[in-house]
Specification:
With 125 residues, this protein is an alpha+beta fold. The chain has helices at residues 12-51, 60-73; strands at 85-89, 92-106, 109-122.
Length: 125
């Protein structure tokens, strides 16, 4: 009398389901990474302008111009300097970012990433 031991592991159908799920999440990650890398570039560009010692003497227009030059150098094209909210109140300089990026995933399904942040610096007077 031969006793069969229970088989362990995934069946062919199980492997197909796992591979489909991995493919969907892998594709989503592949589409999302460039948007997050570009946001990181935007964030570091704004922080570098705010950390510049000349920023305290700049007007809002000059800050916008400095950001525009650095956006061009870093090849930021998802957002322009006119899309930034720049305000200088008393001794505080604030730069606000609010935008979203849409990337197609498949068919009529898209990924939407929303980036919103405010960078500020006390520049004193």
């Amino acid at each position: 009398m031969i006793t069969r031991t229970r088989q362990r592991g995934l069946s062919l159908l199980g492997w197909v389901v796992v591979l489909i799920v991995l493919a969907v999440f892998g594709t989503a990650a592949f589409r999302m990474v460039p948007a997050y890398m570009e946001y990181n570039t935007i964030r570091s560009t704004i922080n570098s302008v705010l950390e510049d010692s000349k920023t305290a003497r700049m007007s809002e227009h000059e800050v916008r111009s400095a950001l525009s030059k650095r956006f061009t150098i870093n090849q930021v094209d998802v957002i322009g300097v006119n899309d930034l909210a720049i305000s200088k109140n008393g001794g505080d300089l604030a730069v606000g970012v609010d935008y979203e990026v849409r990337r197609p995933l498949f068919y009529n399904v898209s990924l939407v990433m929303h980036f919103e942040d405010t960078f500020s610096k006390n520049i004193g007077r």
